[in-house]
Specification:
The two termini are 28 Å apart. This protein has 310 residues and is α/β, with parallel strands linked by helices. α2 crosses α13. The strands form 2 sheets. It has a 5-stranded mixed beta sheet with strand order 2-1-3-10-4, sandwiched between helices. Strands 7-6-8-5-9 form a 5-stranded mixed beta sheet, with helices on both faces. It has helices at 16-23, 45-60, 73-81, 92-104, 116-130, 150-156, 161-167, 186-193, 208-215, 257-262, 265-274, 279-290, 296-306, and strands at residues 36-41, 64-69, 87-91, 132-134, 144-149, 171-175, 197-202, 221-225, 236-239, 251-256. The chain has 2 domains: 13-141 and 248-306, D-Maltodextrin-Binding Protein, domain 2; 144-239, 3-Layer(aba) Sandwich (D-Maltodextrin-Binding Protein, domain 2).
Length: 310
């Protein structure tokens, strides 16, 4: 996910008044035992689950919490740097490249990579310049992935993206609208895997429209998320990124540095989650919300209790 993964980056300017009205009371004060904290995230199932996980962990540690899922990193990044909000539920490479563009300009080349620790080191360096600190990344990762129908995979003996490249036939792709210009989408599929992309249908990253077009055979390949729990039920399967092409998109808490220095116990609380959360865990929680219609807060509470974290 971003951006992250190539996703969910519509500029939610309408949310700005809400953000600043609610967040001006943030910072180090508040009536909670450990202080007040505003947690931000983007507006989709997984982000809602992550902010609820962070919320409940911080409440268990004695903080008074408030959640604002605002739909775009563009909206919350500057307030996070200014301590107007304190914690974001984020994605490693997407946040790294967002900060790199802020620090070095919009045309700055990506400094993220498939290497989690190397990307984390870059994020820490960039964060020092703007006043934010990444905590421990989880094993859980929500990265770009590319899916085909199970029928298409079986017919053509496809398991990996390399297999699709070797097939040698023109492939139509449903993906985010910026896919044709992205190295983690069309450009990389062609250069890294030799896949012949005949056209890109701009139906969105991991969107219902993309998955529907793929399931109906209107396209042969679809850009999806590694944590999407609906794929199997739709008859879709992800082709393995066997050349480790996609950047690391581990879930990572990102915290205002000034606030963190005053509230170090927040890091202890959030890092406990990062130490146990896996991609399969996240996929299962997504399914409980999307398929079973459970509330994100209930799913988060159930998971944290199962893991003995609250």
């Amino acid at each position: 996910m971003n951006q992250p993964p190539a996703r969910r980056i519509l500029v939610a300017l309408m949310a700005l008044p809400l953000l600043f009205t609610a967040a001006c009371g943030g910072g180090s004060g508040g009536s909670g035992e450990a202080g007040h904290v505003v947690i931000v995230g983007q507006e989709f199932t997984e982000a809602n689950i992550m902010t609820q996980l962070y919320k409940q962990l911080l409440e268990h540690a004695g903080f008074q919490t408030e959640v604002k899922n605002l739909g775009a990193r563009d909206v919350y990044l500057h307030p996070l740097e200014k301590d107007q909000v304190q914690v974001s539920a984020d994605y490693l490479s997407s946040m790294t490249d967002a900060l790199n563009k802020e620090v070095h300009g919009e045309n700055a080349p990506s400094v993220a990579s498939p290497d989690t620790q190397a990307t984390l080191a870059k994020l820490k360096q960039l964060g020092q310049k703007v006043g934010i600190t990444p905590l421990q990344p989880a094993k859980a990762e929500d990265a770009n992935a590319y899916a085909v129908t199970k029928q298409f995979a079986a017919k053509n003996h496809l398991v990996t993206l390399s297999d699709l490249g070797k097939l040698g036939q023109p492939i139509s792709l449903a993906a985010n609208s910026d896919c044709p210009e992205r190295t983690d989408c069309k450009l990389g599929l062609e250069k890294v895997y030799g896949i012949k992309i005949s056209k890109v249908e701009p139906l969105g990253f991991d969107s219902p429209e993309t998955k529907s077009a793929l399931a109906k055979g209107e396209v042969q390949l679809g850009q999806v998320a590694t944590t999407d729990a609906t794929l199997n039920g739709l008859g879709l399967v992800i082709l393995t990124d066997d050349k480790n092409w996609q950047n690391a998109e581990n879930l990572v808490p990102v915290v205002n540095s000034k606030w963190l220095k005053a509230h170090p116990k927040a890091a202890d609380a959030l890092n406990k989650l990062s130490g146990v959360l896996t991609t399969d865990d996240l996929k299962a929680m997504n399914a409980k919300v999307d398929a079973e219609r459970m509330q994100e807060s209930d799913v988060a509470e159930q998971y944290l209790k199962q893991k003995g974290l609250i």
